[in-house]
Amino acid sequence: MSLAVVYSRARHGLDAPLVTVEVHISNGLPAFQLVGLPETSVKESRDRVRSAMVNSGFAFPDRKITVNLAPADLPKEGGRFDLPIALGIIVASGQLAEKSLQGYEFCGELALSGEIRTIVGEIPVAIACRDAGREVVLPMLNAQQAQQVPKVAVHGAEHLLQVHSFLLAQQPLPAIPALPPREQQHLPDLADVKGQAHAKRVLEICAAGEHNLLMLGPAGTGKSMLAQRLPGIMPPLTEPEALATAAIYSIAGLKRNLHDWQQRPFRSPHHTSSAVALVGGGSVPRPGEISLSHHGILFLDELPEFPRKVLDVLREPLETGVVHISRAARQAEFPAQFQLVAALNPSPTGHHQDGRATPEQVMRYLNRLSGPFIDRIELQIEVPLLPKGMLSQHTQEESSASVRERVLAARQIQLNRQGKANARLSGSEIADFCPLQRADAQFLEDTIHRFKLSARTYHKIIKVARSIADLQQQAQISRAHLMEALSYRALERLLSYLKN
Predict the structure, then answer these.
(1) Cis bond upstream, residue 71 (ω within 30)
(2) Calpha distance 364→359 (Å, rounded)
(3) Within a 10 A sphere around the Cβ of 288, how many other Cβ atoms?
(4) How confident is the model at residue 1 (pLDDT cuts 50, 70, 90)?
(5) Close Cβ partners of 162 (under 8 Å, ≥ 6 residues apart)
(6) Rounded mean pLDDT of 441-458?
(7) Interhelix angle for 82-92 vs 160-167, to 10°?
(8) How much of the chain is in helix, strand and coil states, percent to nearest 5?
(9) Can you give the pLDDT at residue 472?
(10) 172-222 per-position pLDDT tens digit
(11) String of DSSP letters for 314-355
(12) Cys bridge to 361: 116, 144, 357, 366, which one at CB 3.0-4.6 A?
């Protein structure tokens, strides 16, 4: 047969669209033509495939070979189409029956020796194959990672000859190495942080409702330590959340260790990071730090040192939970439902009351953060210096395990009530699940107008109050809950103080 059809998958954001590899061998001068909007890395597959077939003992046809990667309007990149192209030529030249390809999809880059090298994005490929009802053949290392996708038949191969023998039903493919057993990771414990009871209380509220957090305080007060201990008190990822996170890491060329499969990601980019590094981008759109923090924490230390334009690109993803990347030839959408945790000093000298910085210098330093950006952070607290003698005291601090129990109980209340964390509630859902007494609603609105806060802040305070009530296992939001939520606006109070 001179025509063969092999199925594969492209990479487009978090999706793995189907690519039909059509191979036609016809009479004419020997030529190898590749069509279907291939990029340079795909065009180079002609030489890789030819050498891989010859070195594996297959006859390479001395005729005109035309390979079409359909659909023609979908850009193709990477070496993932080497294996399906080689199999298509083998079938079209009569060295393998076409029916042996039925029910399978193939992805893999070929070495000149015929060995199969790893690709990027095996998790979306496995998910797409499962949904299409086909089995998938991947490079061995990719197959090991793809085993984490439930209800999909994954096969791993190390050489083109192994795939050929498998399709001929002569011998099975090598067994995929078993995934190591999942173990509980030992995360930094909250008991390591001396004092700071107020900050620990806010960290618990942050974990319970998935709220954003900003910590303001002098250097050395424990802001980074507190942020690093937030994952240890948060609920573990559910299986769908863990799979979504693994898919993002897969297309970014990163691997999620099975030991932290259900651990929420914690990303801490340096303040020299660009907007593209945070949000994602490139000629072939790749996920940025906010997408790698999906269902986890993005920690920005020394917040004012980030360029203001870089921080402002976070405003829309903080609200929508997704990021849209548009380039001239490519568009992509990546999930970015993350918790922002930020830390900053109150002045360029480290403390706004040390006499070394004037109010004007402090204002100029803090004005690197835009008002709309600060408005999106629900919890803003001051982390003060520890009182004298605290560091030398041998007091038993509360552990992350005990705090986590309260957080899990509060989160379960939220899931039973509304199916999501409080921070993810929409405006209409706030009215349904966070009702206020008439007098409390009037009190909150009067306070918002008195301090000239936005309507967004009004709703965020209600969400924080709802999380406080859930931690106390109270069905109704009270005035005390609202007042506590209002007290967590430290940066706004500092700015107001400096202006006056």
Answers:
(1) yes
(2) 9
(3) 28
(4) low
(5) 173, 174
(6) 87
(7) 50
(8) 40, 15, 40
(9) 94
(10) 999 998 877 766 667 888 988 888 889 999 999 999 999 999 998 888 888
(11) THHHHHHSEEEEE-SS-EEEEE---EEEEEE-SSTTS-TTSS
(12) 357
CA pair distance 308, 326, nearest whole angstrom? 22
Listed residue (485, 436, 453, 490) closest to 208, CA to CA: 485
Q: pTM higher than 0.90 for the full model?
A: no
**Residue 157 in 3-state DSSP?**
strand
Q: How are beta strands 339-344 and 379-382 bridged, if at all? A: unpaired
The secondary structure of residue 231, as a DSSP letter, is G
Q: Look at residue 217 in the predicted model and tell me its pLDDT.
A: 87
Report pLDDT for 200: 92
Residue 428: phi and psi, rounded to 5, are -70, -35
Which of 182, 126, 114 lies closest to 154 in space, CA to CA? 126
Task: Tell me how far apart the alpha carbons of residues 401 and 412 are, in angstroms, rounded to a whole number.
Answer: 16
Distance (Å) of CA 488 to CA 84, 127, 195, 211, 230 = 57, 42, 18, 12, 18
Give the bridge partners for 105, in sequence order.
136
Encode pLDDT of 36-63 as tens digits: 989 998 999 999 999 999 999 999 999 9
Task: Please list, in sequence order, all residues whose beta carbon lies within 8 angstroms of the beta carbon of residue 164, skipping any fewer than 6 positions away.
Answer: 56, 58, 90, 96
